[in-house]
Amino acid sequence: MICVIIIPMIAGREKNIQENNPQIAESDICCPVDREKNNQENNPQIAEYDKPGHVITEIRKIDPRDPDFDHIRAAADVLKAGGLVAFPTETVYGLGADALRSEAARKIYAAKGRPSDNPLIIHIADFDALYRIAREIPPQTRLLADAFWPGPLTMIFRKSEIVPYETTGGLDTVAVRMPDHPAALALIRESGGYIAAPSANTSGRPSPTLAEHVAEDLAGKIPLILDGGTVGIGIESTIIDLSCITQTADGAWVADETPLVLRPGYITREMLAEVIGAVGDDPGLAGDTDRELTGAVGNSPGLTGDTDKGTAGAADNGPAGAADPELREIVGFDPAGAAAYPKAPGMKYRHYAPKAEMLIVSGAGEAVIRRINTMAAENRRRGIKTGVICTEETERRYQAEFVRSIGSRADEDSIARHLFAVLREMDALGADRIYSESFSSLRIGTAVMNRLMKAAGHHVLHV
Ligand code: TXA
Ligand code: MG
Q1: What are the tens digits of pLDDT across the range 246-269?
Q2: Span from the CA of 146 to the centroid of ligand 2 (angstroms)
Q3: What CA–CA distance (Å, rounded) separates 120 from 133?
Q4: 210 partner at 20 to 30 Å CA-CA among 3, 4, 90, 166?
């Protein structure tokens, strides 16, 4: 099925875009002049953003397991013409461009509003494709690829000459991943083998796990979205930096330092270490887990006047409520004051932030529920709408305007899968304050908490 939209849509969860938004089916008649002007009907790839806001965005539904080749070919044609296409992967939706053409990569930054120093991941469909874009590929690469490719793992290498600096954000290294998704793999092969693709969201917003999320952010800016339904994993790939392993003149491989995880994901550090031996965590990410934050009380926004997300006002009307005597418990983490900066440029930016103020409430289960309910009641008294992010196990225990389970603690994957959709949903519902349970105890807790901490501007209340 094909539909054409030019207007932003309302969020909804795991539903068919057309079902939720009947206006889309009609929207192809609401802007006939633009359509004619851009001559897009015949040539969707020529539009792009020379006239941002006036691009007709076409959505093509595909079967994620067995994508219709006509749609793949249409998308590949757009990419080969230097245009952008959003497409599903097993982690999140990506916004693709030809990775080897600087002007194509540049369009990605424009469409997302992405800082130009934030490099893109190149997606490949065959291991051998790596040799054209990377230099000094250490033996650990093959071991990790055998274990985790295709899959949610990105590896960083030194880049070859053919990779433009626009793709790598000016770095001499390149990030590479082979996605585990039939439509993504088919599109990569059909379009020439190298697709640069960040998550297909506006910079700073939660990553898209549905085509609908992509349309919310990028409709009117890109010509084509391949809609493969809900993604499987729901958080972005784990990134490991292998560029620290280099080859000496006599051919030996030496690691200048332990390979580091630059972004936690579904594949944990422990899983990587089982395959290649010691793997570390980028020290620049230390503030992104609840555990480490416990020791960072000195950065409390209520005490230091940290102005991120308006928390300087926390004592008056911050997430914890008015003049809360336990405000000191709110722990803020200021990445600028941390011992090290994250090594992945993208990890230093504020991310995933919903419009509402958000606070993670961490502690023993009953205490968390009690505290959130108290704050929600106080908010209600003051006319503030509260959203609660919880789990199936606790959903019925909360009294607040919007209570949303993101999954079951017994099924960790479900929590990762719904995280971004729930953050978007809170915005759509109009929550003023969001309180979230903490998920540090999960196997994928590091990855989930990394995203949640960024969404909450590193604000945690320990109870
Ligand atoms: O699962 C994923 O990885 C998704 C799907 C679409 O594949 N893509 C994704 O891309 O999450 P993006 O652009 O949202 O995140 C890429 C991250 C950024 O934090 C960026 O700074 C980092 O990877 N990165 C890319 N190249 C790098 C490099 N050469 N060195 C260090 N970090 C790099
Ligand atoms: Mg992203």
Answers
A1: 999 999 999 989 999 999 999 999
A2: 25
A3: 13
A4: 166
- For 295-313, give the DSSP string: T-GGG-HHHH---GGGGGG
Assess whether the C-beta atom of 391 lies below 6 angstroms from ligand 1.
no
CA distance between the termini of the chain: 50
Q: Measured from the CB, is residue 167 less than 6 Å from ligand 1?
A: no
d(CA 16, CA 12): 9
Task: Write out the H or E segment, with its range, that includes residue 66.
Answer: none
Instruction: Give the pLDDT confidence of 303-344 residue by residue, as tens digits.
Output: 222 223 333 233 333 344 333 434 333 444 444 444 567 888
Please give the number of the atom of ligand 1 that sits closest to the Cα of 93.
Answer: 6
pLDDT digits (tens, 9 = 90+) for 127-186: 999 999 999 999 999 999 999 999 999 999 999 999 999 999 999 999 999 999 999 999
42 CA from centroid of ligand 1 (Å): 33
Q: Indicate the pairing of strand 280-281 with strand 330-331.
A: unpaired
Query: For the chain, what is the radius of gyration of the CA atoms?
Result: 22
Q: Which of 45-59, 66-80, 287-301, 305-319 has the lowest mean pLDDT?
A: 305-319
Angle between helices 69-80 and 182-191 (to 10 degrees): 50
**Is 346 touching ligand 1 by the criterion CB < 6 Å?**
yes
Burial of residue 139 (CB within 10 Å: 0-12, 13-18, 19+) is exposed
* Cα gap 372→230, rounded to integer Å: 30
Query: What would you measure as the largest C-alpha separation in the chain, in angstroms?
Result: 73
Tell me the per-residue pLDDT of 425-439, one tens digit each, with 9 for 90 and over: 999 999 999 999 999
- Per-chain mean pLDDT for the chain: 82
pTM value is 0.84
How many whole angstroms separate alpha carbon 440 and alpha carbon 449?
6
Give me the amino acid identity at 101: R
Does ligand 1 lie within 6 Å of residue 168's CB atom?
yes
